[in-house]
Automatic annotation (TrEMBL):
Residues 1-88 form the 3-hydroxyacyl-CoA dehydrogenase C-terminal domain. Signal peptide: none annotated. This is 3-hydroxyacyl-CoA dehydrogenase family protein. Pathway: Lipid metabolism; butanoate metabolism. It holds the Pfam family 3HCDH.
């Protein structure tokens, strides 16, 4: 994340303050409640791979994600299929949705002046 933030700064895409605001108020709200692996499963590994294939050419790491390809080839698409990077018993999707919602609401409330 820092590498990409520095790249955005170096390319003049935005300033450092904007980068911090976007991270804190964007995906930072989500990742405080759901980690990156659980989030990838939650939204689906097929969507995750599609996002990465579209974004990764603009990043330094390339577009090959053999872990995702192997899981998808085995039918493990994430929460919708019962497993992906993590195992997803039926009740986990609803539990993650509740935790994600509560975490985002809590984080937004903490940022809102009284």
């Amino acid at each position: 994340m820092v590498r990409e933030a520095l790249h955005l700064l170096a390319e003049g895409v935005c300033d450092a303050e904007t980068i911090d605001v976007v991270v804190r108020c964007g995906f930072g709200l989500r990742l405080a409640s759901v980690g990156p692996m659980e989030n990838a499963d939650y939204i689906g590994l097929d969507l995750t791979r599609s996002i990465l294939r579209n974004l990764a050419p603009h990043l330094a790491g390339g577009t090959d994600f053999p872990v995702l390809d192997r899981l998808l080839a085995g039918g493990r698409r994430g929460g919708a299929s019962g497993g992906g990077l993590l195992d997803w018993p039926a009740e986990r999707v609803a539990e993650v949705a509740r935790r994600l919602d509560a975490g985002i609401r809590r984080n937004l409330a903490a940022r809102t002046p009284a």
